[in-house]
Design a protein that fits this description.
184 residues, alpha/beta, Rossmann fold, eight-stranded mixed sheet, 8 strands, 28% strand, globular
Amino acid sequence: MTWLDHFLQRQRIAQARSFLAPGARVLDIGSADGALFQAVDFLGAGCVGIDPTLKLPVDGGKFKLLPGFFPQDMPAVEPFDAVTMLAVLEHFPTAAHGPLADGCQRFLKPGGQVIITVPSPRVDTILAVLQKLRLVHGMSLEEHHGYEVRQTAEIFSPPHFQLACHRTFQCGLNNLFVFQKIGD
């Protein structure tokens, strides 16, 4: 990752951080190397990250990183206080949206939150230019599947989820969504 990749990653983590409670157990979907868990030092023990790019499980002390795809490769674990997906949702194909939302519901405590950052479609063009200039590393742009930001509220909709927050950041190029689990 380049310095710009790290900067953008820190910006996404900063957006999610304000919705994470001290001591919370968090499931980070698309965790990569566990940057969220390393940056947010007030999280509780038992946090889990899952990412298909990992080759082997990692024990980070208060967190574990698992190789695999969510939800099909998640082991049976206690429900989490929050689920995060930072610049990840746009990589899921449309056919996976239903199982993704179902998995979040299954692995989330009642009243828990799903915290998501999703780039605006304009970002793909900007990233393509930055990639050619070698200012960002390959961002798997081919996996964005033409994702439209408005789909996010449709994926995480009632009766299982309620939109608690939606705002833009980075001059409107990125979106933060926070959904609260209803019921159970």
